[in-house]
Amino acid sequence: MHHRLIKITLGLVAVAATAPTGAWAYPAPAPEPAPQAQQESPYKDQGEYDLANAAGKETDPGKKLDKLKEWEQKYPDSKLKSARTLMQAQALLGSAMAAYGKTTPPELLDSGQKAAKQILDNLDNYFAAGAKPAGATDQQWADARKTFELQSHSVLGWIAFAKKSDPEAETEFKKILELAPDSAQVSYWLGSVIIRQKNVARYSEALYDLARSLTVTGANALPPAAAGPAADYLKRAYVGYHGDDSGLDDLKKQAAGAALPPAGFHIDSVAELEAKKFGDIEAFNKAHPDIALWRQIRDALKGEQGDTYFGTVKGSQIPPENIGTFKGKVVSVNDKDLVVNVDNAGGDATLKFEHALNQKAINAGDSLEFKAVVESFTKEPYMLTLSVDDPKEAIKGLPDNAFSSAAPTKKAAPKKAAPKKK
């Protein structure tokens, strides 16, 4: 999940939205040429001069693009064709960057996304060797292209992140890190979107990315106000996945060496460590009957007959008395819901309460035990939602001030036992 304490850093890429700037960026419309110098004017006629002048003075990116398009339609073979193309690229970048760091309105995000994609689709055209201004060096021209490419991917990554289009955001963040490896905030976001997809098989990669965000130094490091909460979040996520913080320092050292983890990178989960400890699944299930039952219910619900099986489980209180309670760790708290990690570090149980929870009293990583009534489920990502009628009886481990008001104390009506999958 995205750590809520990390604030958006709009200085993700240390380049200006209007880059490249300088005398070579695009020529300002020249003064009306004197009659004796008419043959040297870059403008075909007064009409072209007026269009170029209007486009150059326009500050709104959308309106500038409209004026440039009109200039292009009326004077397709202009002597200033290359300069006009660069002006179009700059206007598109301005339109794209207007959406960066924003979450609304939707039309702003859509227009920014469209502009960024247009830039990337036409980079070869915008930055062709023949389009390079006379006053620019080859290195400046290459740097300008990289700037446009980097900022366009930054906009696309941010917008996908804001829209919770996590696979798309992940792709864009990785492209940014290929261009600018020392981007701490991007590494943090990348780890966050991988965790948000709740695929426990990829948590090793996510933990690496989070660790990487803390090892970047210099201008692109996390600001001090964000670094502390980020470190706390990494430790909680690491311990929740691995079982303890052993190996965390080594992870940070490894992450300092490269922006992305090497192929095959893996950190053992607590379940894998337990499996190795017991040697076989049968021994593990005997030692952990609660986890064995949880996995049995999960696999049945995710199977082809999951909806049918759910009909037999819905309304059941789990686990049965012979098992007692499920054990888990808090992942997040939201109003009357508590997301818990029973067998998935990203959370695979949502406990619903009648009274609002005191979010300041409950911390991610806190251990608890629970029994509750099956209410609903989703297959992908898997989440079992359960209701808690009497938290004093059904929950162990929550602090005394876990609720913002007095929680109900009535004894829940007996629930039917959860049937086992045949």
Question: Could you describe the 3D structure shown?
Answer:
With 422 residues, the protein is α+β, with helices and mostly antiparallel strands. The chain has 3 domains: 1-25 and 42-173, no CATH class; 181-267, no CATH class; 289-396, OB fold (Dihydrolipoamide Acetyltransferase, E2P) (Beta Barrel), CATH 2.40.50. 47% of the residues lie in helices and 9% in strands. The protein contains 16 helices and 8 strands. It has helices at residues 46-57, 61-74, 81-97, 106-121, 123-126, 138-162, 166-179, 184-196, 203-215, 224-242, 248-255, 270-278, 281-287, 289-302, 306-313, 391-394; strands at 317-318, 326-334, 337-341, 349-352, 367-370, 372-378, 383-387, 395-396. It has an 8-stranded mixed β-sheet with strand order 1-6-7-4-3-2-5-8. Strand 2 (326-334) and strand 3 form a beta hairpin. Helix 1 runs antiparallel to helix 2 (61-74). It is elongated. It starts with 45 loop residues before the first helix and ends in a 26-residue tail after the last strand. The model is unreliable at 1-37 and 408-414 (pLDDT under 50).
Query: What's the N-to-C terminus distance?
Result: 35 Å
Derived structural class:
alpha+beta
Oligomer classification: single chain
Please list the strands of the largest sheet in the order they lie side by side: 1-6-7-4-3-2-5-8
Largest sheet: 8 strands, mixed
- Give the radius of gyration: 29 Å
Report the principal-axis shape.
Answer: elongated
The whole-number mean of residue pLDDT values reads 85
Taking pLDDT < 50 over at least 5 consecutive residues as the criterion, the unreliable ranges are 1-37, 408-414
Number of domains: 3
